[in-house]
Amino acid sequence: MAKIEDCPGFETFGADVKAARKAKQLSRSALADMIHCDSRYLANIENEGTLPSLPVVIQLIKICGLPVERYFNPELMREESAERQRVSHKLQLCPEEYLPIVEGAIDGAIDGALRIHEQEKEPVCI
User: Fold this and answer.
1) Which one of 65, 75, 103, 105 is most buried, counting C-beta atoms within 10 A?
2) pTM of structure
3) Is 55 within 8 Å of 99 (Cβ atoms)?
């Protein structure tokens, strides 16, 4: 079995699965049933850093909505700031019905930032 230190990018896989499972309000046994494994095996993945087989990894990524690139292309993820990675991960966990609210909040933040930026460029007349 592969060791976590031999698989760069998978250092947080277990913790990511656990966080996603909780965000989706799934019990460990429910998720284990969905991927056809024992709940103790899933506990080992989440808590002990056990690296599952590729088919189990793929199922967990799909069900939990985890970003594939984090695990299979970690160099790409390292180019993004930690804050951007956290926001991206939270967005993946966000229920579909809340996405319009999230999008509106992001649009508002971008518009506000652009207005502030434009005000800083204009000379102040006294």
Assistant:
1) 65
2) 0.64
3) no
